[in-house]
Amino acid sequence: MTFWIPATLLALAAMGFALAPFLRRSPGRSTGKPAHPGDDARGAGTDSFPGDVRDASTGRDLALRALYRQRLEELEEEAASGLIEASNRAEVEQELDRGLLDEFAGRSAAPEPAGSHAAAGRRGPTWLLLAVLIPLLTLALYLQVGEPDAELLQGATAVLELDPERDRLELDRWRVLLAERVERAPDDAQSRYLLGRIYLNDGEFGLAAQAFSRSRDVMGDDPGIDLAWLQAVYLANEGRLDEAGREIAERVLGREPNHPMVLEMLAIDAYRRGDYAESVTRFNRALGDAVEPRGRAALELFLKQARSMLGDLEPSIDVALNALETPPASATLFVIARPVGGGMPFAVVRRAAAPLPDAVRLDDAVSMNPALPLSAAGEIEVVVRISLTGAAVRHPGDWEWRSAPLKIAGAGTLALTAEIASPGTARPEG
Q1: Per mean pLDDT, which of 57-66, 335-344, 408-417 is the most reliable?
Q2: Are 388 and 325 in contact (CB under 8 A)?
Q3: At the N or C end, where does the chain have fewer CB atoms within 10 A?
Q4: What is the rounded distance in angstroms from the CA atom of residue 281 to the CA atom of residue 141?
Q5: What is the per-residue pLDDT across 251-295, written as a single tens digit (0 to 9) for each?
Q6: Res 22 pLDDT > 80
Q7: pLDDT: which is higher, 365 or 153
């Protein structure tokens, strides 16, 4: 509402400027008579001035007389206050007389064209019409291209922090305001995004997906919009991703390859489609980054179920893990099957080192590169590393265990036990 107060004041000010010429007209000018018929010898209506000025009937003559009287009054005040001397006053007064004579001489030499008063009269209604129309047109233009409700929408991003239950009334208020806003301004991408977040909180997943889609059409490539849009599509389809949803997911992973939530969505979608190998791959990657304990337990359960549906892939290696010391809380575990002596890994499992998993399985489902699976290897070695930096490449201080060379072709399922400790207490390679 505070927008309309300054808008109204500005409109009144514009009308005032346009009407000012009419409001300044004196009664004498509007009637064609002197404003002060009883003025003295220096005013209008006497014979004191050379060139008979009593015949002056135009508004210009009256204005000149009024200016002359005003200047004489100022001259009186300046003389009384001592700003000018008496001798100088007479000289200034004579100069005023000559100036007025020159003005009236010009008036007599160049009379106004016939009909000029009529034309001036016709201009009056035109100015009055413009005085009313200009503010109205200005307001209409602002409402069309401006932001009259910008102040009303200040703080709208608060909807991202509001709780759907505790802040129900506030969310409902923003829902109404934002819905009205996007109806008036369809290209307001931020308002559409915020409205989509409210729909998402309210369980209206189809409406949320539409809002995010329209927002992205305007904004272009935006990670935040893509992620919210993917959630809405996934939930609207009851835990499945259509082709458009998978395209959004791959776009997010292109920017953040190990995004846990997106990998989990793709893993569950693959499981429901019966693609258990892809599901295992996605769950394995989702567990690779730091995940809070509750979420990690859920993902491990999903991975176990997906593996049970997949069955045994051969060759495979089950690696039991035994830490001789408690690993640092921030360390990262890597279990790697690679060519003997190093090189591009065939398969990798990445987990948080604390708590350390009991065992991991290496097979084609956790291959680094589908074009170079574990089943295509000849001889390999298994490296178990607890990285203090989180990097897969070895750094000083990392804990490491390495197996003897293993022939993998046709080996079926192999079992290994890795005993891991800090460099000062490392065990011999097994």
Answers
A1: 335-344
A2: no
A3: N
A4: 58
A5: 999 999 989 899 999 999 999 999 999 999 999 999 987 678 788
A6: no
A7: 365
Instruction: Say how far apart CA 232 and CA 241 lie, in whole Å.
Output: 10
Single pTM value for the model: 0.61
Contacts of 17 (CB under 8 A, 6+ apart): none
Contact 235, 227 (CB under 8 A): no
Token pair of 370 as six digits: 């589908």
Helix ranges, 24-167 (H):
27-31, 59-80, 86-109, 116-145
Would the pLDDT of 46 be above 50? no
For 137, the 3-state DSSP assignment is helix
* Max mean pLDDT range (50-59, 135-144, 254-263): 254-263
**What is the overall mean pLDDT for the chain?**
77
Q: Taking the CA of residue 338 as centre, how many other CA atoms within 13 Å lie in the half-sphere pointing to its CB?
A: 17
Q: Which residues contact 226 (CB under 8 A, 6 or more apart)?
A: 216, 248, 251, 252
Give the per-residue pLDDT at 322.
Answer: 92
Residue type, 330: S
CB 379 within 8 A of CB 338: no
Distance from the Cα of residue 242 to its chain's centroid: 29
Residue type for position 301:
L
Q: How far apart are CA 67 and CA 107, in angstroms?
A: 16
Q: β-pairing, 359-362 with 316-323?
A: antiparallel
The DSSP letter of residue 224 is H
Cβ atoms of 359 and 319 within 8 Å: the answer is: yes
Distance (Å, whole) CA 279 – CA 282: 5
3-state secondary structure 184-217: HCCCCHHHHHHHHHHHHHCCCHHHHHHHHHHHHH
pLDDT at 102: 61
Q: What is the DSSP string of 16-28?
A: HHHHHHHHT--HH
Q: Which residues pair with 110 in a beta bridge?
A: none
52-68 burial string, b = 16+ CB within 10 Å, else e? ebeebeebebbebbbeb
The DSSP 8-state label assigned to residue 385 in this structure reads E
Q: Both tokens of residue 426?
A: 């490392």
C-alpha span between 410 and 383 (Å, rounded): 21
Give residue 321's pLDDT.
Answer: 95
Cα angle, residue 47 at apex, residues 44 and 51 outer, rounded to 5°: 95
Q: How many Å apart are CA 152 and CA 180, to the nearest integer?
A: 12
